[in-house]
Amino acid sequence: EILKAFKSIDKDGNGYINIDEVRYMLTTLYGMKEPPEEDVKRFVKRFDQNQDGKISLEEFQKAMPEVQKEVREEIKKNSAASTKSHSSLHRLRRKHVRSAAGPTKK
User: What is the chain's pLDDT, residue by residue, as a tens digit (106 residues)?
Assistant: First the structure.
């Protein structure tokens, strides 16, 4: 799976991912909008361990487990926040429906 991901980014097939290939990949992730240059540089810096300006398969394989872990944690965090927000909105909606119905009888 990691090799497949690497090859899908390495468009010219030279065995390295360069900054233009990172930019292209992020452009597709951003919905065909130009990604912020800081995101491109952050991606390259994250994977380019020897800082030669390109990402080898070995560098990609070494960094991916940690990146995948961070992505899972971020998804979990966002999912929990979304669930919490949904619950809060549902309580507010129920409160609004009750107050719109008028005072409750005792």
Answer: 899 999 999 999 999 999 999 999 999 887 888 899 999 999 999 999 999 999 999 999 999 999 888 888 888 877 766 555 656 666 666 655 554 555 555 5
pTM of the model: 0.66
End-to-end CA gap in the chain: 63
Closest by CA to 59, choosing from 9, 20, 12, is 9
What is d(CA 87, CA 74) in angstroms, rounded to the nearest whole number?
20
DSSP 66-94: HHHHHHHHHHHHHHHHHHHHHHHHHHHHH
